Amino acid sequence: MSAPVLTLASASPRRRQLLDQIGVPHRVRPADVDETARPGETPADYALRVAVAKAEAGWAAAPGAPVLAADTAVALGTTLYAKPAGRDDGLAMLAALSGRTHEVLTAVALRHAGGLETALSVSRVTFRDTSDAERRRYWDTGEPLGKAGGYAVQGYAAVFVARLEGSYSGVMGLPLAETSTLLARAGVPVWQDDPGT
Predict the structure, then answer these.
(1) Rounded to whole angstroms, what are the CA distances from 66 to 16, 62, 186?
(2) Active-site residue numbers?
(3) Quick count: other Cβ atoms within 10 Å of Cβ 191?
(4) By C-alpha distance, which of 37, 191, 6 is closest to 109?
(5) How many whole angstroms separate alpha carbon 13 and alpha carbon 11?
(6) Percentage of the chain with pLDDT > 90?
(7) Within 10 A of 184 (CB to CB), how many other CB atoms are there?
């Protein structure tokens, strides 16, 4: 891998994997920001606010290389589902999503010397009907912890997904089409490492 040209203000292994996938060398410096939703805040506003806060915090800590941050929110109607607080919360989220279509909103923020740019990816995910036993068994895998909406589309929860409209990488946590567009505007090219080497 080439020398890092980007700081990723996230501890998410999925976001790191997605940046690796498109050949963008980066260093990881998670930004610790308050991710509490504000009263009356829409899921889109929430995701954008948190992503911007992470990018700005990363830039303040180490200005120079562009700082990329993202935040994902799951919404069922106007109800925002962030990371589950515990087992009961996670199981309630999974029950609410069962047999229904929800939105996954992932905001991307890029802070660089020229300023701040953002993008928002909105995808629609439909879960098949799931049983109490399936949801409990899924929770017991440990995978739902720390995941918006209490599930990971790229993991065991893939068996719940009947339909996905939009960005698969966005549902994972970093929409690559939007991200690559922001990076290009900041002069950060993709495919910096030849996948054939």
Answers:
(1) 15, 9, 8
(2) 71
(3) 10
(4) 6
(5) 6
(6) 92
(7) 11
